[in-house]
Amino acid sequence: MSGQALVAALGWTLVHFVWQGALLGCAVAVLLVALRNARPETRYAVACGGLLLCLAWPAVDLALLLKAGAGDAGGRLFPGAGGAGAVAPGATGLLPWLGQNLGWIVALWAACSCALSLRMAVGLLWIGRAARAQACDPAWQERLSRLAERCGLGREVRLRVVDGLSSPITAGWWRPVVLVPASLVAGMPPHLLEALLAHELGHVRRHDYLVNLLQNVIETLLFYHPAVWWLSRRIRAEREQIADDFAARHLGEPRRLALALSELEKLQFSSHHLAQAANGGDLMARIRRLLRPDVQALNWKAAIPVLGLAVVCAASAHAPANRNDAAPVLRGETRGAIADFSTCRKPYYPKADIAAGHEGTVTIGFMIDEHGMVTGSSIAKSSGYASMDEAARTALALCRFSPALEAGKPIEQLAHIQYVWTLK
């Protein structure tokens, strides 16, 4: 087979996956909405199956194109359309344009895939080096080994203390290792850190590292389709819930893991890392689920990605996926305003205060209206330095909030946020 025929077959395979991925995304989205109150293991299996189909369908399509020849591949994109080989050189339209630019499409895809592969390889090398070179805390290693035995793991799980991480990471399959941020070892109460380690052992028990590697491979090959990234993100979110359930079951107290996740959020935010989920998922949603595992009502906002993918599938066009992950509002729920720290801007440390070695904690009060907007702010408790107080107030006023609820209805409420200024 000539190189030109191979490029044509690969190019049409990439083009076909635009509608194939949209169709798979629609189907999985509908199933996940229907299974919203099922066990996370069930949703995890559905999402994994959808992502595997995203790899298998183009692979089968490529094999069929190579076997039959890619000349008529364009005609398979739209029912009733003529083959690409039958289009006159001067013809205009989508199919002729695609057929004339398959070489550029494949070249661009190959370049991006190589860049993503390089990034993945660098990440794997860094993890391997950290597992070999970083310090081992004997006391925590012994504690982790006892915890692994309690959780029914029959193999050794190593522990390494690493600087610069924002949350624990589990790596390796044959010889698993848990990389723990040095800031957690130094700043988190031992019983809460043990809860996070139990969560990581849940990943080890289920061999999640291998599944995550396969996810990275699929993301690298099919990076251009938003349905692939959406499915992969759902897999990681469900995986975290499964590990949460594993840890809560073996600890016997879900509240301890919820407190550990809350403490992890505080440590990340106070050290200039805006709060993000450990290894996937949403920290606030996971904390609420551990403390109040209520039945979820149907959230019509979740249908927006489904409708978007349906439009893509019907039009056979590449459109961005809707990434609205707003937490569902439970009927009759009463809660305070919740800040979305991913929308916040990191406060700028005043140079004069850095030079003077000033540190402190400021508490800022924000008046949040029924729409989650900040209508006013004030310093509830000063750090002792006016310039640091003002810098924190100005930056955090840009945060987005979910409004407070009373019996399910949004209300205006005063919310307080602490910010820790530290030079460490």
Low-confidence stretches: 70-91, 270-279, 316-328
Mean pLDDT: 79
Number of helices: 14
Query: In sequence order, what are the helices and strands, one letter per element?
Result: HHHHHEEEHHHHHHHEHEEHEEEE
Q: Tally of extended strands?
A: 10
**Category by helix and strand content:** alpha+beta
| Major sheet attributes | 3 strands, mixed
Specify Rg, calculated over alpha carbons.
Answer: 25 Å
Principal-axis shape? globular
Strand order in space, largest sheet: 1-3-2
Q: Separation of termini?
A: 61 Å
Assess the beta-strand content as a share of residues.
5-15%
Quick summary of this structure?
This protein is α+β, with helices and mostly antiparallel strands and about 425 residues long. Helix content is about 55%, strand content about 10%.
List keywords for this structure.
424 residues; alpha+beta; TolA/TonB C-terminal domain; three-stranded antiparallel sheet; 14 helices; 10 strands; 12% strand
Question: How is this structure best described in words?
Answer:
With 424 residues, the protein is α+β, with helices and mostly antiparallel strands. Among the domains are: 132-298, no CATH class; 338-421, TonB (TolA/TonB C-terminal domain). It has 14 helices and ten strands. A hairpin with a 2-residue loop joins strand 8 and strand 9 (409-411). Helix 5 packs across helix 7 (190-205) and helix 9 (226-251) crosses helix 10.
